[in-house]
Specification:
This protein is mainly beta. It is built from no helices and twelve strands. The strands form two sheets. Strands 2, 4, 7, 8, 10, 11 and 12 form a seven-stranded mixed β-sheet that branches. A hairpin with a 4-residue loop joins strand 5 and strand 6. The protein starts with a strand and ends with a strand.
């Protein structure tokens, strides 16, 4: 995972911040459907903060084939989504490397606060995590 400053510091209604996820398959097996999944807990602001009135965040993935940013799923919830509910993902051959670019923006009506973004790597063929999840530091003001 790579981002400027090692974390995302968003401003409601402000510019999106980009980050990169690098997938390296050092395993002895190919992955046919490896999905990068994102989740964060509901933000709880500081005393005096206004509660959010909109969807909160917009996550997008860069599509190199079209050169455009496309919506990506960011689950905002305080529970864990069962791995069997994830679908999709792309191939990652044994010893291969795949780089994915994302950007996250806080909407003008969204909440403020701080919580890490949990980035999981789900093999949707086996309903298991292919690697340990990582945390991306995040705050929205």
């Amino acid at each position: 995972m790579d981002t400027r400053g090692g974390r995302l510091s968003l401003v409601r209604g402000g510019a999106a911040q980009e980050f990169t996820v690098i997938l390296r398959n050092g395993n002895s097996a190919d992955h046919r459907h490896l999905l990068v999944a994102f989740q964060m807990e509901v933000l709880v602001g500081e005393p005096g903060d206004r509660p959010g009135s909109g969807p909160g965040f917009l996550l997008e993935r860069f599509d190199p084939a079209s050169g455009a940013w496309r919506p990506a799923e960011l689950r905002v919830a305080n529970d864990t989504r069962p791995l069997s509910l994830y679908t999709g993902g792309g191939p990652l051959a044994r010893e291969a490397v795949r780089v994915e670019r994302y950007r996250l923006r806080a909407t003008a009506g969204g909440p403020t606060g701080s919580t890490p973004v949990v980035v999981s790597f789900v093999d949707t063929d086996t309903d298991r995590e292919a690697a340990a999840h990582v945390l991306l530091g995040h705050s929205t003001g």
